[in-house]
Specification:
There is one protein chain. By secondary structure, the chain is an alpha/beta fold. It contains 12 helices and 18 strands. The protein has an 8-stranded mixed sheet with strand order 1-2-4-3-5-10-6-9, with helices on both faces. The longest helix has 19 residues, at 91-109. The protein starts with a helix and ends in a 14-residue tail after the last helix. Mean pLDDT is 88; it is low at 1-9, 15-20 and 428-450.
Amino acid sequence: MARWLRSLVGALLLLEGAAALSFLHHRYEEMVQALFRVQSQCPYVTRIYSIGRSVEGRHLYVLEFSDYPGIHEPLEPEFKYVGNMHGNEVLGRELLLQLSEFLCEEYRRGNERITHLIHDTRIHIMPSMNPDGYEVAAKQGPDSNGYLTGRNNANGVDLNRNFPDLNTFMYYSGEINGQNHHIPLPDNWKSQVEPETLAVIQWISSYNFVLSANLHGGAVVANYPYDKSQDQRFRSHRRTVNTPTPDDKLFQKLAKTYSYAHGWMHRGWNCGDYFADGITNGASWYSLSKGMQDFNYLYTNCFEITLELSCNKFPPEEDLERQWMANREALVAFIEEVHQGIKGMVSDENNNGIAGAVISVQGISHDITSGDMGDYFRLLLPGTYTVTASAEGYQPQTVTTTVGPAAPSLVHFQLKQDVVRKAPERKASGTRMNNKALQKKVVPRATRRGTQR
């Protein structure tokens, strides 16, 4: 009940003085202009950067919101939205442009909720991962657009089937109690992916993202990992196999946060399909190999879900305002979900941050690691947990902590050097931190069935 009350209060805050927005489809140049217009209107809390180029040379632009744009602040989580991965699924692209303008306008108006969100979170918004495909779809427009026209990139590749397949390795590794996180990429992976995919992999390797959503169209449901079934033998018979991650209950909660804040997703019946609570395990719907959602979970610290947002992949402009009103609260509420679980610093006895320290939670066979400055973020549901921090050359440290339903619990680790072995060289910020710095310190960091997801 308390969660729904907070959601209602948050929605009312967003309604106060909401700015009038333009509801139009944006071609590439218009999208770029819209992003730079937001940046010029909110120059002190935004930054635009490109993570690379598409096959046809279009920039893959990201708009960042933060009280210190371009800087990672220790203990401040990184969040991302990615839209238009399939070029003909355009609603996510337009919603993210609307969200960008909305965040800027509400920040300027002094909206307390949005101000706190921008000051306490580093938000990255990529409206289009597949700008080339979008241009193909947009030439036909919403009235005559084919179901697959513009879906793929300019090389004809489905970008959501183009990431390295880490699931197969993980399923085997699980059988032998092997590695369950940050699974290494195959040696020749770069030769097997498209430019857009390569850019995204390098991007998510450079930022310690904690939570993410990938916006699609063609259905209305919040989809969570795993997307790929452990048993692929039933694919031809359209059999489905629920394939949960070790964080299954958490992923269900994240998906429900979006579906119940959405105008109608939570009702279940949409587009001729029924999904209880408006959510589904990906493999339970249908098995998908080499997808971006599973890749985030298995290769990085990031927990990503896939949001299917409209029955019509290319809705007409007159439907955009209704779709924005249905998604606005959900888009904001989902970002707020990054602030849960536990977070803290992992340091040595001299208060130097330890990068790459492994954070393990007893009973959950999926670990995460600390970032370049030694800070870590572990999303967890409310409860009591036994947590261990370990790093090569140091003695592990284990603590028991209780996680509440609101803000994340602050749990720091200070590891002692292993006297048996000499500590090897490690990645570390080299920044000495006193107790005050553990609370918050600004330190520059290097730019570091019919529907198919």
